[in-house]
Amino acid sequence: MEGIARQRILPLETLSRLPVYRQKLRQLREDGVDTVSSLELAKQLGVGDAQLRRDLSYLRLLGRPGRGYGVRHLEEGITRALGLDRRWPLAIVGCGSLGTALARYEGYARDNLVVTAIFDIDPAKVGKKVRSVTVSHIDEAPRVIAETGVELAVIAVPSSAAQHVADAMVRAGVTALLNFAPVALAVPAGVIVRQMDISAELQILAHLKIVENG
Amino acid sequence: MEGIARQRILPLETLSRLPVYRQKLRQLREDGVDTVSSLELAKQLGVGDAQLRRDLSYLRLLGRPGRGYGVRHLEEGITRALGLDRRWPLAIVGCGSLGTALARYEGYARDNLVVTAIFDIDPAKVGKKVRSVTVSHIDEAPRVIAETGVELAVIAVPSSAAQHVADAMVRAGVTALLNFAPVALAVPAGVIVRQMDISAELQILAHLKIVENG
Question: Could you give the CA distance from residue A162 to residue B146 in angstroms, rounded to a whole number?
């Protein structure tokens, strides 16, 4: 059952909201809240009640009439649906200021994400440690990735190097990439790329500000 | 007409795609391409043809039957719709490794975004320069923001300080925030917050990897 639920294809919009729901539920649990109605949870999340219930129904997570959702049950259900009920070894590629910030980020453990590899090409950086992880040369990627079981890679290199880095990661067997460089990456079928585009977010923000504030 | 088109409320999903369209159009223009069919553009963008045409129709950008879209016309139309046909002064709050990386980012100019202020609370950082911008103490925010015309602020501080910083920005008159701290910010009505959540992106990536690769 669990395997089936996990492998259902969720609408991307639903999927995008799950980490937000999960964070709110964690916070409620830490505040000692045991149950929550969909109405109250939706209100706290700033989403529609119907949307919340629809999103959760994709995961087969149902509230009990008159009692609402169990907070812990819901949090665990979302964690399982996302696949975060097991460890995810992670590589950071690029050890400039952004890559270093990403390697030092403290929020991963909470989500079962573990930085097990950091790559760069600069001889001055290779061999140094960021937290407890030694920076490796990108040419060592196939070995280091195999040894540390990396499954996700974060690309934090200049735009001009991003495609080269993506190719190297794919060759080393990594099939899921989070790309901070503002370029569209070409990857083989079966490789997943998500884009973190700071500039795009600022463009959206600028537009919303005009609409809201005139 | 232009003002009307700009102030129409776009569906958020359409809005989220516009920066990606814009980047592809810029690239085509730089490659010397003058016109492009919606079919070809959709293919290059990896989106559906119908969706692309619908998105562009919101901006009243129409192709010519048999000739397709003018690349430059389309790029300029999207730039105008986003509101990027004028300068957007930007503040970075937090001058740790992430904030420094954000302050040094070279892609802003292309989008008419200009970092005009950087804030921190650390006396060791205040007064230093990142690129050509001097780091100010956050207590100086009202003056610096007024003087440099800041309209957008990027929050790159630890979670524990994010709400405090958001409050300070709002008090100083900034009504559009891009938040990198993994916490939900409480802001008054009329203030826009967009969340950059690295951990959420990695959670989505982990899920997609399970669905794709088993």
Answer: 38
Assess B109–A contact: CB distance below 8 Å, yes or no: no
Residue B5 has pLDDT above 50, yes or no: no
* B97 and B73 co-located in one domain: no
Is B203 near chain A, with CB under 8 Å? yes
**What's the CATH number where A28 sits?**
1.10.10.10
Same domain for A75 and A17: yes
Residue B10: pLDDT band (50, 70, 90) is confident
The model's confidence at residue A5, banded by pLDDT at 50, 70 and 90, is very low
Edge-to-edge strands, sheet with B192-195 = B129-130, B133-137, B113-120, B88-93, B152-155, B176-179, B192-195
Residues 5-64 of B with CB under 8 A from A: 6-7, 9-10, 13, 15-16, 18-20, 22-24
* B157 shares its domain with B103: yes
B124 contacts: CB under 8 Å, gap ≥ 6: none
Domain boundary among B41, B63, B82: B82
pLDDT tens track for B25-64 = 998 999 999 999 999 999 888 788 898 999 999 988 877 7
Total tally of structural domains belonging to chain A:
2
Using the beta-carbon criterion (under 8 Å), do B211 and A9 form an inter-chain contact? yes
Q: What is the pLDDT of residue A8?
A: 56
Instruction: Inspect the interface and report whether the beta carbons of B107 and A190 lie closer than 8 Å.
Output: no
Same domain, A146 and A196: yes
pLDDT (tens digit, 9 = 90+) per residue, B139-187? 999 999 999 999 999 999 988 899 999 999 999 999 999 999 877 788 9
3-state secondary structure of B57: helix
Euclidean distance between CA atoms B22 and B20, whole angstroms:
5
> Within a domain: residue A34?
yes
